[in-house]
Amino acid sequence: MKKTLDQILSAINAAFEYTFTDESGSPLDRTSSQKNASTCVIENLEFDSRSVKANTLFFALPGTHTTGNKFIRQAIEKGASAVVYQGEFSAQEKEEIASVVKNSGQTGSSPIFVKVESSRFAMSPISAAFYDDPSSRLVIYGVTGTEGKSSTVSFIWHRPVFSWRRCCQQSPAPDNSGSSNCPAGTLPNARERLYPCCSRIFKPRS
What we know:
Layout: E1 3-4, H1 5-10, E2 18-21, H2 30-37, E3 41-42, E4 44-46, E5 56-59, H3 72-77, E6 80-85, H4 91-107, E7 112-116, H5 119-130, H6 149-162, H7 190-199
Parallel strand pairs: 4-5, 5-6, 6-7
Antiparallel strand pairs: 1-3, 2-7
């Protein structure tokens, strides 16, 4: 998947408000920033700075004991071309980010900073836009409860599979048929599991 940052932000349908800022968090002119965003290539979405590579949009998510803003420096060092963050930068964060942005500017283009009210909330509509909103073209079933969830998901999932229809499932329990195209795990997030899983349904069969 490959899009520009401007294409992604233009497709979120005003799901949230955002502001372009510089590396210190100061607001930038929107018109000129959108022009820069139109040339900012995004090929990956990540919220773990250790997994960032070139042309990645990095989500600096808030945590219980720390903040993703502390890892923006590491994300930029690894090649992040854009950063979605919330809140204000501390003095130390400003210093670290300014230093790495200066170095990135000398070797290529500087990353674009997008400030939002909630970076965790913004991750879902941005992921949907990046993956061409696959859920809008799918029938989705959600299964909740105390016991029997995985079995119910498996029953639902196998019916279209046996009819030679494409589908995917996201369940805490692994699927033993070898046909599932979505990894097992609990509480999937939009970037890591849900949208990538759904988008693979529309890829041509090899």
